[in-house]
């Protein structure tokens, strides 16, 4: 019977197999990605003997840093501490005449810190034999900027250029992304290059960086003159892209599975109607309902199981592509375990599909042997009302389609749901890509920099006046704003509180900066502050409340919250202050950025190149849209990588579903189509009726789904980006791209309908007459 089932239903069975396999592939891949992220990082940390946390002191005095380190070393849960001497590279850094994007620092090599790092190119001997003009670079720098061994790196200082030849490429947990500080390892810092001391904290077995911080704060009344980046937070940051892609795949996979279950349900129902005579014949031969139910369930269990297993095996290629991209800066080929995700996916899909099929097939108990004569059709007839309308329209192709929509409501609802989900998913992807492509242009909103044309980062505060004079005397400049985008403020620590530090944006006058604000207004004087939406949520603070902060970790001020804004910077842990907060409290403060507004924006590229020559190594010049581009890339790159294939897969599955539905419609309407052919209608006429049928429902679904996605998209993205605490997600929709996406859906549906409608050529009038 299995062979007979497949032979007579090979098209439906094949389509069902493909649908289940694709869903299984996507869901298995998503589960595999999500559960394969932890272990490689844990193994990597053990291999590299990574610190439990890195402490960044607020004081720049070496005596203060050493005293702070010794205080940590006395904690009972600390095994040891190590001092790391680094220089934060705010200067322009290039390689092969290309500017290197990201946050970097020069770090003096110490065997006690870096002795166990993983080398992708080179070895421990390489780094121990480094010369003064040689360096070892992190894999994230190499991968992002295509810097290889043998290339030269140039750092543009005010007193001359510094060159390093790359001797090796390494990876370590704290140096896996250019969105945060990653270290270029050198023998020692050159003379004249200012260095900071950071403290690496190594906890005893089982002790986390958070445990160390809590122990120190409890011993020192909550005060700590520095902030800690813990190992756990670093791992979570490195897992962001994998979690985003895995979550997208899982959400889309579940949506497609629900829709495809509706299709399978409809498909099995139609098959049971066509098999009614066969079932009746088996009953006349002595088979009971239980035997027949068992035969069908075994057949579909076999089909579903093989589809799930093949989908699980095929998912390895998808998950490996994603995992390789996540772990490429680790320098490890990750082989994911198919057993767990495959078992989860297999159990869920097989249980769902077989349970649904059982519910439908169990109705065959009602089939009586007498149905062997007339199938499941009802022999009774109802008197139909006399039709007074336009018979010519009623029996035109569009009339037949409209009548089919009204009479076969269940079929129509299935197509409508399929179309709505497909249109919704594809429009979601297109809108997401449009937003991703405009994030850099709108980084005033997403990061918090003012919407200037050019930004200049001045490293040495003694050069501020010199650089400012050059800018203001340039006739191409409309006006200039001074700011500081590197200051930090702290909050009083309470037990159980993880948030203690905020990155501060400091401007003289926010009315000129005109930075976007979500609620309220930007601060106007020295006793006011605007906080990010994430800080507001974490501290349960709102406009009108006061917040106690410490400037540089030591000067306490109490500020009124006047506004709430949103930002990706520092994962949302930011605030906005005026310069007078510092000056009114007699606290040292220096600007580090100039925001330049040009009279003619078309001259921007020429202005940048010209200004580089004028100020030399006194400042790092960049277009505002490229400021902090590595942070924006961390958000944008996963979306650009994951969304297009998912959109393509959704379009493919939508087309397959339409194909299935039209095939089933043709099968269930075989007699009706035969009658139409008896009346003289051609095959093309019937094909046109199918095209109108699908087209009408597709247009209705677009009318429903497009406004739905436009209304729901911001809310969906707020949930997806909840880690940043967003309370608003403004979107400027590109309606041209939306229109193209929906035209593509219509074309895919039309092609699917045309291909599936080829079965109408097999409708034979002779078969109808014989029956």
Automatic annotation (TrEMBL):
Regions crossing the membrane: 12-37, 244-268, 299-326, 338-358, 413-433, 642-664, 691-713, 733-756
Keywords (A to Z) from UniProt: Cell membrane, Membrane, Transmembrane, Transmembrane helix
ABC3 transporter permease C-terminal domain sequence ranges: 251-357, 647-764
InterPro entries, A to Z: ABC3_permease_C, Membrane_comp_ABC_pdt
Compartmental location: Cell membrane
Topology in membrane: Multi-pass membrane protein
Gene Ontology CC terms, in alphabetical order: plasma membrane
Record-given protein name: ABC3 transporter permease C-terminal domain-containing protein
Source species: Clostridium fungisolvens
